[in-house]
């Protein structure tokens, strides 16, 4: 019985040691307006994500991006060229319970977003449940 308890304690410690970044994060843009980031860790070096960014008043434009991208040293970088000569780059920096999102280049239309929409902000973990991704 003692051996079984020790094994169970060891296994539970291993499970809690792997802090997965999988979950749903949000960033408050305005009083009742939130940008949402969904992350699924596929491996130690790859994530699936989608991000729904809101622009707020007065136009309330929005933007959406999704992909499977590389993850290295708690950093992921989404790159996509939508218009010749302009690249959209969105960086995600992961830390305990949050993701700092920085839109490095390609603001607005270059990322396929509405006018004056960026995804910059500190997204806080809201749910560790496996997110559902849109097709």
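Sequence proposed for the structure above (135 residues):
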């Amino acid at each position: 019985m003692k051996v079984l308890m020790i094994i169970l304690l060891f296994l539970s410690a291993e499970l809690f040691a792997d802090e997965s970044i999988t979950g749903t994060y949000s960033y408050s843009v305005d009083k009742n307006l939130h940008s949402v980031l969904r992350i699924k860790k596929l491996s130690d070096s790859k994530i699936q994500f989608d991000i729904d960014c809101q622009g707020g008043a007065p136009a309330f434009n929005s933007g959406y991006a999704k992909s499977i991208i590389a993850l290295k040293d708690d950093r992921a970088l989404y790159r996509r060229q939508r218009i010749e000569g302009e690249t959209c780059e969105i960086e995600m920096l992961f830390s305990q319970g949050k993701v700092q999102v920085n839109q490095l280049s390609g603001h607005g239309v270059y990322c396929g977003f509405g006018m004056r929409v960026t995804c910059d902000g500190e997204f806080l973990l809201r749910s560790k449940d496996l997110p559902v991704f849109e097709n």
